[in-house]
Design goal:
single chain, alpha/beta, Rossmann fold, 2 domains, seven-stranded parallel sheet, six-stranded parallel sheet, 17 helices, 13 strands, about 50% helix, globular
Length: about 375
């Protein structure tokens, strides 16, 4: 088979790595990079660290409004699919690149596999929620990381084949953690000790775009003091725009976004993680690190992390963040809800089974 993998943003690249390796054992893969993320810290470093092949096509779309960016991607992906004529398309997660890849494929009657299907927050004000809902309804194969995701899709009476694959993030974390620990010197470079710092990431619009909200978060980090804060480029832009950057950088370790291997080491050795990233919440759970999520919504994409007592939703108020950072301790045990680390193999086997006879594909592997 000839499969086109469509990626374009940091989360896509990480999910692609183990799936691409498994796919290329028996099939031809074409990687289409939309260019949604394009600076080294959010793009090139992941291909370098994770040993992925160079993209076959780079559309260089860059930043823009959601509609314009998705439209430009759709145009470029469609032109590429016309040229390559793949048997199927794989999309990952919930970015604009994910949506554009699925829309281009479904319009051309090319079969679509969605890796990380079925996640829901039930908040359509979140761009990623819009993307994931639309992509799921376009897809022929829906590879779910958890049983909760399967329940979500069945409740929506999804037409595509629903498969419990497990989470590819378990695959890549199992593969990379020992490598990261042997290679990374990030703790020494930052002058920090294991379990002696908080690790923070902030990039969601509801936390960055309003100056008062971002100010409260920044002040909470300053109150805590021993915070390592890898800063997303758009968050850095708003911190500077609102006049918060200089004071914050004088009181916390405000650093540029880091690669996957460095991030794994920072996550594993953190005392607690403070984040608004869905992926980081899950990584914290897998690594056994308490997590505070800067979000008010009672429904999140990874409810298992909250149900098991390792993730606390704290919102974005200064006093709530500080109190939780000092007092929150996990009360439960992690379960093997995200699979055993063989999701990539299950995904490729599912695609092969569907290609040979769609009726034979198991609904829950």
């Amino acid at each position: 088979m000839k499969i086109a993998s469509v990626v374009g943003a940091r989360p896509n690249f990480i999910k692609l790595a183990p799936v691409s390796r498994e796919l290329r054992k028996s099939h031809e893969e074409i990687i289409i990079h939309t260019g949604q993320h394009y600076n080294y810290e959010l793009d090139r470093i992941f291909f370098d660290e994770l040993g992925m092949p160079e993209p076959d096509y780079h559309l260089n779309v860059g930043s823009s409004s959601h509609g314009r960016q998705t439209g430009e991607m759709l145009k470029g992906i469609e032109e590429t699919l016309i040229q390559e004529k793949p048997d199927g398309v794989i999309v990952f997660g919930d970015t604009n690149s994910t949506l554009a890849g699925a829309l281009a494929a479904v319009k051309m009657h090319i079969k679509i596999a969605h890796v990380e299907a079925g996640l829901r927050s039930y908040d359509m004000s979140i761009p990623e929620e819009v993307n994931r809902v639309l992509v799921d309804h376009c897809s022929n194969l829906l590879f779910c990381p958890t049983r909760t995701a399967i329940e979500n899709l069945r409740a929506e009476r999804m037409l595509g084949e629903i498969c419990l694959s497990g989470d590819v993030m378990v695959d890549i974390q199992n593969e990379c953690l020992k490598i990261a620990e042997s290679r990374s010197t990030v703790l020494q470079e930052l002058g920090i000790k294991s379990k002696d710092y908080y690790l923070a990431t902030v990039h969601r619009p509801w936390n960055t775009d309003d100056p008062l909200t971002l100010k409260g978060i920044a002040e909470a980090f300053q109150d805590l003091g021993n915070v390592v804060f890898p800063c997303h480029p758009r968050t850095e832009k708003y911190l500077k725009q609102y006049g918060l950057y200089d004071e914050l950088s004088s009181k916390v370790k405000l650093i540029k976004a880091v690669g996957y291997l460095q991030m794994l080491v920072l996550e594993k050795n953190a005392r607690k993680i403070i984040t608004d990233s869905g992926g980081v919440q899950k990584e914290a759970y897998l690594l056994g690190v308490p997590c505070l999520t800067l979000r008010k919504s009672a429904v999140i994409e990874w409810p298992e992390t909250v149900q098991d007592g390792w993730n606390l939703l704290v919102g974005s108020r200064r006093e709530d963040i500080v109190k939780a950072a000092k007092e929150f301790e996990p009360i439960g045990k992690q379960r093997q809800v995200f699979g055993r680390g063989d999701a990539s193999r299950r995904i490729i086997e599912g695609i092969e089974s569907f290609a040979s006879d769609p009726s034979r594909l198991e609904k829950a592997i």
